[in-house]
Amino acid sequence: MIQGNMVALVTPMLADGSVDQAALCKLLDWHVEQGTDAIVSMGTTGESATLDEKEHCEVIRLTVEHIAGRIPVVAGTGANSTTEAINLTRCAAQSGADACLLVTPYYNKPTQEGLYLHHKAIAEAVDIPQILYNVPGRTACDMLPETVGRLAEIRNIVGVKEATGELERIGKIRALAGEAFAIYSGDDATGCESMLLGGNGVISVTANVAPALMSKLCKAALAGDRATAETIDAQLAGLHRDLFLESSPIPVKWVLAEMGMIQEGIRLPLTWLSAEYHQPLRQAMSQAGLL
After folding, report:
1. Cβ atoms within 10 A of the Cβ of 54, count?
2. Is the pLDDT of residue 222 over 90?
3. Which residues does the annotation mark as catalytic?
4. How many C-beta atoms lie closer than 10 Å to residue 153's C-beta?
5. What whole-number distance in Å separates Cα of residue 44 and Cα of residue 10?
6. Domains and CATH numbers, the chain
7. pLDDT band, residue 257 (cuts 50/70/90)
8. How many Å separate Cα 213 from the centre of its chain?
9. Which long-range contacts (CB under 8 A, 24 or more apart) does 223-229 make?
10. Residue 22, C-beta contacts closer than 8 angstroms, at least 6 positions apart
């Protein structure tokens, strides 16, 4: 089971929106040096919705190749088409990813039975560990704990990224899915508490810019050291909040550019961060010790 600080990695881009492969490799090396426990490539924060299938697979391939086994790589391969999700998951498996992260189908609002059959079909089609991803604020689709429990019975469905921020779901999912099933927070603001309540880690946006602190927070929380975990979490609270002043990954890309880690590249329909949010983010960066 992968545990701890799993960064929901941005996809660096040049000003024209093309993928900046050199910056991606630089970020990957930095995360290994900073103690990040796993890379999550091509998730929501990686702008997966605006890369075509070929680009998507290429970013995953390059990430796996450059990491070269130093830490696990989880590939985002979800889609609102079951066939497309199978194709992306197969591509990730062929590239050597350690696991896949599959967001619930967005926009078309499947039923709970539809969600079950969608993920069951992908798991049966591609023999790679698969992590469910529930983020109804993005998808307009909420995978209920009972459905997660049903899917946990499938051998290669090994965990869930639960991004509702509803902490009571941790206990419900644990009771339904069992102790061997991984539960990851997808909400930085409640991630610390979710681990203290029995979760296994955080798939984090904040970790893009403060990986060492997020790793320390996760280690403390997983060890049950509430005092240390909450102290670090308080230092990061401004980032947890303000990295969502506009739709992610707009703010986190701006912060990384301010840190000199990436260029000012993002794809439409996303735009660069509005000027009114620069100062609040600088204050959050200062609070976290990034300035």
Report:
1. 9
2. yes
3. 133, 161
4. 12
5. 9
6. 4-225 (3.20.20.70)
7. very high
8. 17
9. 224/196, 226/196, 229/192, 229/195, 229/196
10. none
Q: How far apart are CA 161 and CA 148, in angstroms?
A: 10
Residue with tokens 């509702």: 164
255: which residues sit within 8 A by CB, 6+ positions away? 208, 209, 239, 243, 281, 285, 290
Number of Cβ atoms within 10 Å of the Cβ of 175: 10
With a pLDDT cut of 90, the percent of the chain lying above it is 99
Query: What phi, psi does 65 have (nearest 5°)?
Result: -65, -45
Cis before 280 (ω within 30): no
The rounded distance, in Å, linking the Cα atoms of 291 and 289 is 6
What's the angle, vertex CA 7, arms to CA 38 and CA 76, rounded to 5?
80
**pLDDT tens for each residue of 64-94:** 999 999 999 999 999 999 999 999 999 999 9
pTM exceeds 0.90, yes or no: yes
Secondary structure (H, E, C), 198-251: CCCEEEECHHHCCHHHHHHHHHHHHCCCHHHHHHHHHHHHHHHHHCCCCCCCHH
Count of CB atoms situated within 10 Å of the CB of 147: 22
